[in-house]
Amino acid sequence: MSEDQKEWLSLSEASALLGVHPTTLRRWADSGNIPCLRTPGGHRRFRTADVLAWTQGTQARALAPQSETLVQSAVGYTRQEMARKHVSHESWYMAFDRENDRQQMRDTGRRLFGLAIQYMSRTREHKPVLQEGRRIGEFCGRQSAEHGISLVDTVRALFFFRESLLRAAVAGPYDAEDVRIHRQLRHFMDEVMYACLASYEATCRHLLSAGRMQ
Question: Quick one: fold of 60-209?
């Protein structure tokens, strides 16, 4: 292999180095977030120095605008769904009757969406993202129990936000990449839900022992 050939990486080689799915890297390249060269045959080639720069910190800065756009899209879609389905009349929504509590839950939801988008974009190092997602689930479970929301309504709320996120993440024709994205997001949100329910039960037991529940 010549020195010139070593300077460039294929799509699969670059995506493996970055720890993302090849289709994700293809989208980043096509949107101009990472430089690439097209061969006469149409194949994408990535300069090794550019890819290494991303792994050393440039990646997070370069992806921030795109990740924020995805989060905004998910949040916007969820708000539309909340209005369309009159979520403001749901008992799990009305339980947070103070604006400070609602703002805290909105901020938590935005953080959760951001983590879900990180999770679906990676092919490795999922554990830290998943752990943070579980912590958010635990927080939501405690909040639900302390606000007197039933377990059924807690699950309803979780499913509402999960389905909103799934619909917001995939637009257009459903292809193999969309299948992968849905699988990743469902796994992430399922783990968040399990953590939420476990925390809900633990909080209820604590409240019962403290004599704060009937």
Answer: Globin-like (1.10.490)
